[in-house]
Amino acid sequence: DIQMTQSPSTLSAFVGDRVTITCRASQSVTTWLAWYQQKPGKAPKLLIYKTSTLQSGVPSRFSGSGSGTEFTLTISSLQPDDFATYYCQQYSTYQSSFGQGTELQIK
Amino acid sequence: EVHLVESGGGVVRPGGPLRLSCVASEFTFDDYGMNWVRQAPGKGLEWVSAINWNGGSTGYVESVKGRFVISRDNAKNSLYLQMNSLRAEDTALYYCARGGNSGTTAYMDVWGKGTTVTVSS
Asked: Using the beta-carbon criterion (under 8 Å), do B44 and A100 form an inter-chain contact?
């Protein structure tokens, strides 16, 4: 099975900052990579799929890139609503898997 | 509005069974693959199982293979997870999630609110 590793596990930033979260796969997932945002007590919300396609309704300050084994989620200018936990997910194989999560905290 | 509602969670003794259900509304259920994803208390997301649009193809995380069975009834717009031989490590909030296509491998674009399973003696 494919292991997904996110870095950092925790990130502190100011409103207005540009932040990047990295997700690495233990083997190539080509571009079959999605990103989710989860707030406490809520279900995850799909942000990006197929590495860089923005889900409908998601603000354009979110973007994704990468291929193969290394991927990034970038938030161009942090807003107060963006402080949450972010997960990557590979869906390259019949056994999908998530990264361990990155908690984005207000500095 | 597209909607998924899970039910069937509860407290069960180790080794016991439990059946989760998920009812879908406001979309054509048999156009999509479906998933179960769980989240242990204070932990991250773990994909558990997926099923394609007609139930002909399924997938499971290694830790539940042979114990859990995913199924669906398209006439009832419903997804199920039969969980047997439950262990303490199966304790989690279980989410039902719609896949982004009709197969078993996809991102998940619609999520329910989850149902809680607690395995404890």
From this structure: yes
Q: What is the mean pLDDT of residues A54-80?
A: 97
CB contact under 8 A, A46 and B62: no
Tell me the C-alpha distance between B56 and A14, whole Å. Answer: 48
Question: Which of chain A's residues have a Cβ under 8 Å away from the Cβ of B61?
Answer: 1, 95, 97
> pLDDT for B108-119, tens place per residue?
999 999 999 999
Distances (CA, A) of B26 to A88, B77, B101, B109: 27, 10, 16, 14
Q: Which residues contact A8 (CB under 8 A, 6 or more apart)?
A: A21, A102
* Smallest Cα distance from A54 to chain B, Å: 11
Q: Which residues contact A44 (CB under 8 A, 6 or more apart)?
A: A36, A37, A38, A87, B37, B45, B95, B108, B111
pLDDT at A7: 98
Contacts of B45 in chain A (CB under 8 A): 36, 38, 44, 87, 89, 98, 101
**Closest residue by Cα to residue B42 from B113, B93, B6:** B93
| First CA to last CA distance, chain A | 36
Q: How far apart are CA B92 and CA B84, in angstroms?
A: 15
**CB B111 to CB A38 under 8 A?**
no
Token pair listed for A95: 């056994």
